[in-house]
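Hi everyone,

Forwarding the result from last night's run.
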Amino acid sequence: MPDLVLDGFAGPGGWSEGLRLLGLRDIGLEWDTAACKTRAAAGHLTIQTDISQYPTAPFKGRSHRQIWSPPCQAWSRAGKGLGLVDQPLVHQAVEDLAHGRDTRAQLKAACQDERSILAAEPMRWIHDLRPEWACMEEVPDVLPLWRQYAVYLRGWGYSVWTGILNAADYGVPQTRRRAILIASRARHATAPDPTHTQHPADTLFGDSQPRWITMAEALQLATGGIVNTRGERKTAGGNEFPADGPSWTLTEKTRSWTLHTNRDQRSDGTRQTIDPHTQPAPSFTTKAGGQWFLRSNTQANAAIRSLDEPASTLFFGHRGNAVNWTDGDTKRPITVEEAAILQSFRPDYPWQGSKTKQFEQIGNAVPPLLAAHIVAAAEEITVPAPADLAAA
């Protein structure tokens, strides 16, 4: 086995895709069948296993770097949050594992949610293997646990940084906040430098970072214009939607679609028409049609973001259709492809399993672009610029 990065709770490959951007590879430990099939289709090495039962010995001397994203469902405020109730038991498990005592079985039996104890699992592997560096990611409420890890890791000679990072600060079109731990025995651990900002401003030293990436930019939606699905025919009909909003379902008849500018573009009140298959779109000075928003769920307090903003945190669980595009009058569910792009996965990522399982994988994954910046900070290397990635 080559010196691959050990990827615990590997999921569908968020960390793996981030590592791929850096020219690195991982070997993932994952139990979910759909996620394992997705990883295989994407070309990522995987051992399908219950990681809590897998021995650390086979990796002794063969893997000197570790990344960890324990399941977040027990800790997420989008769910029941029983991990917060179980937190004292998880802290006890971490303390015991740090001293070579394995009390996971007893403590798991006492947990309100048996998944809570999995947040202590990285300590078993770090204690036994003492990697050169380790990176960990979880929902913000797990930050106190990462700080407990940091106490023991510093005692073993690691430099450790813990804190909350916002994925939007690293080019992800989503304001996903996560608790991060970066620990290294080889170099000073620090947070990755942000590449984007919510409020760009000129400074004494030149321009600041570019602004956050919006959903419209990530999904490459044109500004303005109206698409008619019937095309240029003598009789009226067809569906119409703003070109800077989500499209209707794609079918084999999309070749007949036409793009119009606003109705008042001509003095006779008719719309200027272009063929989007053969002509470039004209410039638009105003938006056509209503503004579209992404609503995170059907609850009254759901986060609602317009297309000129990043998405809020994408969470699906077993409710993929609860995330909808809406203009106030109509709505349609977000597609798997759109959700994946808003998580910074490549558009052609080969998701496997049922539609529900695909949404579940996307919502649970680490955004690859955020993962790349975290690992780059641990390795002290540079994340390639977007133009370099496109040319690769």
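The CA atoms of residues 94 and 120 lie 5 Å apart.

Cheers,
N.
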